[in-house]
Amino acid sequence: MARFQNKHVIITGAARGIGFEIARQFAREGARLRLLDRREDDLAQAISSLQAGGTDVTGVVVDVTKRSDVIAAVHAADDDAPIDVLVNNAGIAYETGFLNIEEEEWRRIIDVNLTGAFFVAQAVARKMVVRRRGAIVHMASKNGLDGESGYAHYNASKAGLVLLTKTMALELAAFGIRVNAVCPGYVATPLAAELDSAEVTTAFAERYIPQERVARPEEIAPLFLFLASDDASFVTGACLTADGGQLAGQKPDRSTLARLGYSV
Question: Which of 155, 143, 91 is nearest to 120 (CA)?
Fold first, then answer.
């Protein structure tokens, strides 16, 4: 039987990119889906695509920074069917030098990536605590574990999400709720394409990523399914990194590899 047969899964930021791929893979495993996103047109397209494959899926247009709207959406979802899994994926990013970040931009990043994730997680966890079961998986980032120039606000938001994950895991374990995070490196998504040209992406991968390429959404999504499944029944408070080796250390260049006796 599929791992998530008849399980009710909520996914935020699910209309495109990694969020949609996560939804698609949960659907393939039999899940009943509730997608939350602020982009109405993209959400409608995502739902139509999943329904065409026979998935039981509904969607709600929600801005995760609006706490009352989040609570209403979570209450409605749980009334429809008890929530088994939350994937907290909604997030945004801007590239701006630290000295040039304006207050509005700082607050927007923190509000969506960290405060919004908190609003959704708290609302869902309050439902899960009553039933003493559930799995929550946050979309953190490699940037929450080390810095990257031009993304001070994004880095700070994801670092906060890493510690939110760990603290939630500590407090909610007694209620049978597991809380984990996935920390991807560079992934080829619509958001990434808005930030960097193909040339910039290729140069970045060659310079910084040992595997010398960026990830595809379909390589990241399975990590969310693993952490939400019974296969990870003894995993909580973990931050699973998938970055092509970027955090392993300084990537050697070709001359260094040659000096070490490698023929590449």
Answer: 91
Dihedral angle of Cα 68, 71, 72, 78, to the nearest 10 degrees? 180
Q: Taking the chain, what is the end-to-end CA distance rounded to the nearest angstrom?
A: 44
Whether 12 and 36 have beta carbons less than 8 Å apart is answered as: yes
Give the C-alpha separation, 74 to 92, whole Å. Answer: 21
The whole-angstrom separation of Cα 156 and Cα 146 is 10
Q: Which residues lie below 8 Å from residue 136, measured CB to CB, with a gap of 6+?
A: 85, 86, 88, 121, 124, 125, 128, 168, 172, 177, 178, 179, 180
Per-residue pLDDT, 1: 67
To which residue do tokens 């998935």 refer? 55
Angle CA 234–240–245, to nearest 5: 140
Give the per-residue pLDDT at 5.
96
Q: Show the tokens assigned to 18.
A: 């990694």
Q: Name the one residue in this structure whose structure tokens are 């970045």.
A: 204
Q: Which residues are catalytic?
A: 154
Consecutive H or E run containing 80: helix 67-80
Place of tokens 């009943």: 32
Cα(108)–Cα(100) distance, rounded to whole angstroms? 15
For 7, 139, 196, 201, 247, the CA distances from 210, given in Å and listed in that order, are 37, 22, 19, 14, 10
Average pLDDT for runs of 10 along the chain of length 264: 92 96 97 97 97 96 98 97 98 95 98 98 98 98 94 98 98 98 92 80 90 94 98 98 94 83 82
